[in-house]
Every structure is written in structure tokens, then in C-alpha cells.
Amino acid sequence: MHVTGEVWLITIAAMVVILAVDLLIIGRRPHEPSMKECGIAIGVFSGLAVLFGLAIWYLSGPRYAAEFFAGWLTEYSLSIDNLFIFVLIMANLRVPRQLQQFALMVGIVLALIFRGIFIAIGAAAIARFSWVFFLFGAFLIYTAVKLYLDYRAKHSEGDDDVENALMRWVRRVFPATEEYHGTSLTVVENGKRLITPMLIVIVALGSTDLLFALDSIPAIFGLTREPYLVFAANVFALMGLRQLYFLIGGLLQRLVYLSVGLSFILAFIGVKLVLHAMHEYHLDSPLGFSGELPIWVSLSVILVTLLVTTAASLMKSGREARAVARENSGPSGE
Q1: Exposed/middle/buried for residue 315 (C-beta within 10 Å: 0-12, 13-18, 19+)
Q2: In 3D, which of 101, 55, 81, 68 has the Cα closest to residue 234?
Q3: Spatial CA neighbour of 310 closest among 116, 9, 81, 135
Q4: Measured between alpha carbons, how far is residue 51 from residues 34, 61, 266 in Å?
Q5: Which of 20, 82, 239, 287 could form a Cys-Cys staple with 45, CB 3.0–4.6 A?
Q6: Cβ contacts of residue 5 below 8 Å, gap of 6+?
Q7: How many CB atoms lie under 10 A from the CB of residue 141?
Q8: Residue 118's closest CA among 208, 216, 205?
């Protein structure tokens, strides 16, 4: 796929303009978006992603379009999984609802910066060293196993601790105010400069985004080797994410099997990368497979996994809700 420098510049400029307008609006008027506002924004951003994929199909062929759609769906699913952590961070730090949109937007900008850096590093490494596919594949398989074990631990122990070492260090080193001061990160009280809880929220979201970037970039490079498609898929996956946070805040708790589905997808891509690396080094796989899966197979696996995961999650949540309703109505019916 040949992408000229002009196309790169136009694409980046368009993405920056969209995000900048969004950021300026939020910065001037922090608020909790309505359901209508969220629905319109998500529909527009999703429509733009589909139009972009169709444009890739028209200009470069179905293979690259399928790679974009597979990457976009995977990154979007991983980003939705991020929302579970974001919900916990916002709850634990007691962020006012009208300020949460600002915090999410800053977190998304930080995610774009981190992912841009990792995309550049990953593309350069892949171009020079084929053994990187072994590293990426092994890391994704490890991440898949860890994600599944974390899911089991979360549901068995109910661990909601989201503080990491960076957050604890900030709390320990920098004196902070008890109350939020709008979107301000620092304030002066009694002649002394103090940080606000909003800065701690930004640190929490930024460090979380950094950890998730370590997972998402190897995953998408397992679906496409084109840095342009990797970049576009990541940006489109992050667009509308903060509106999605408000739109399906309750639904997130019902997607109980999302982590299981994502762990399967990451494991699948990890194995795919390892097989590809073996093919690059002319090593026969144990099953005699050539190591090159068609992109339509990857796209099908991702789509089916997400559909099954969503359906199973909603069915389980529905059963639990009905069971709770029966328990609550039992004493009154006697």
C-alpha cells in the first residue's frame, strides 16, 4: 500500500482538527452530555470510520479495507474495555459528572500521543527485524492469559483497586486540595501552589492509556503491517469514546464476558504473529501450516467473537436481573 506524504499530512490534519474542535468546546463548557448528543457523536464518528474503510477499498482494494476494519474493530473493543477502568477511576476519585467529559478528553489525547509513539517504534522495528513478530506474538499471548486471569480474579474477589505506583507517588510527593476546582490542574491557596484532584485523575487516565497502548499496538500490527492503517484505526477507535462512556455507562457492567472475548482475540492474533514469524524464518509449524492467514479469516474471527461475547453477556445479565427481580418480589407476594 503506497501512501504519499501529502496523504499522511491531510489525514493527520483532519484528525487534529476534529479533536481540537472537540477539545475547545469541552474546555469552554464542561458538562455531562445528553443521550442525544452522545448518540449523534458516536453515529458520526462510526460513520466516518466506515466511509474511510470504503475509501480504502475503492483506492487500494478489499484486502487493505479488511485490514482496516479488522484493526478498527479490535482497537475499538480494547478501547471499550478501557472504559471499565475509567469508570472505576472516576468513581474512586469522585470526579463530578460535569467534569468527567473534560478528563476523558485529555485522557484520549494522551492515548493518541502514546499510541503514535508506539506505532512509530513498532513500524520501525518490524521493518528491520522479523524476530519482532515472535516478541509481539508472545506478548499478546501473555496479555491474553493475564486478561483472562484478571477477569476470573475480579469476579471472584471483586477487586476494584485502580491505583498504580505513579498515582501513589503523585499523592505522596505533591500536596493536593480536597476539592475540585473546575478543570484547573493546580491552584494557589494561602500563597502555596497545590495540585487539584483533576491532575491526579489525568495521571491515572494517562498511565492507564500507556499500559493499554502496550497491548493494542502489537495486536493491530498482527492484523496489518501498514502504519497508515494502524494509525487510522487507532484514531477512529478513540473518537467518540468519551461519548460512549456516558451513553453505555450502565451497559458496560452488563458486558461481563467482554474481557474473555478480548483475551481470545489477543491470543488468536498472538498465535497468528508467531506463525508468521516462523514462516519468515522458514520454520515449519507443528501443524504444517504456512503461517499466513488470509485477512478475511482474522476479520471473521474478530466479528464472531465480539458477537458471541456480547450476546452471551447480555443473556447472563438478563438472567441475573430477572433472578434479582424474583427475589425482591418474593416477600411481597407472600
Answers
A1: exposed
A2: 68
A3: 81
A4: 26, 14, 26
A5: 239
A6: none
A7: 19
A8: 216
Model pTM greater than 0.70?
yes
Distance of alpha carbon 232 from alpha carbon 111, whole angstroms: 14
> How many CB atoms within 10 Å of residue 191?
5
Residue 327 in any domain: the answer is no
Domain with 293, as residue range(s), is 5-319
Asked whether residue 149 is domain-assigned, the answer is yes
Write down how long the chain is. 334
Q: How many distinct structural domains can be found in the chain?
A: 1
pLDDT in tens, the chain (334 residues): 778 888 889 888 887 787 777 666 655 566 666 777 778 888 888 898 999 999 999 988 999 999 999 989 888 888 777 777 777 777 777 888 778 777 887 777 787 788 888 888 887 877 777 777 788 788 888 888 887 787 677 655 555 555 656 666 776 777 777 788 777 888 887 778 888 888 888 888 877 777 777 777 888 888 888 888 988 988 888 887 777 777 766 566 677 787 788 888 888 888 887 877 776 666 665 555 555 677 778 888 888 988 888 888 878 877 777 777 777 775 554 4
> Distance between CA 30 and CA 209 in Å, rounded?
22
Query: Which one-letter amino acid corresponds to residue 275?
Result: L
Task: Note whether residue 102 is domain-resident.
Answer: yes
